[in-house]
Amino acid sequence: xxxxxxxxxxxxxxxxxxxxxxxxxxxxxxxxxxxxxxxxxxxxxxxxxxxxxxxxxxxxxxxxxxxxxxxxxxxxxxxxxxxxxxxxxxxxxxxxxxxxxxxxxxxxxxxxxxxxxxxxxxxxxxxxxxxxxxxxx
Length: 137
Hints:
Layout: E1 2-6, E2 23-31, E3 34-44, E4 47-54, H1 62-78, E5 84-87, H2 95-101, E6 105-106, H3 114-123, E7 127-130
Parallel strand pairs: 4-5
Antiparallel strand pairs: 1-2, 2-3, 3-4, 5-7, 6-7
């Protein structure tokens, strides 16, 4: 059985440099009491960045993932975290389509400050941005 609960920083030991307090908003999923995945918004240099991970393939249900992500994005907007940023996982064939459906768009060069450009250089991925009113459910 899948249950959802509030994200806790220890859930994301695989995120790398996530520290307690970095996660601003998040939801974790458990299957039969074991952590199966999580999604949320974390603070990186004063910006809200999306994080997301599926740890158990039984959680890979597109409708559930979409609804949970929308819930995280709505909670972020209600908390005044706007805009939010994301990177598109080029290993996932539908990632770009999904980000667009969630209301994200690829950032234009003129919108990027040096920190975002440096992060793109390190991750080898392009930054996407979403403003609260841009979501299509």
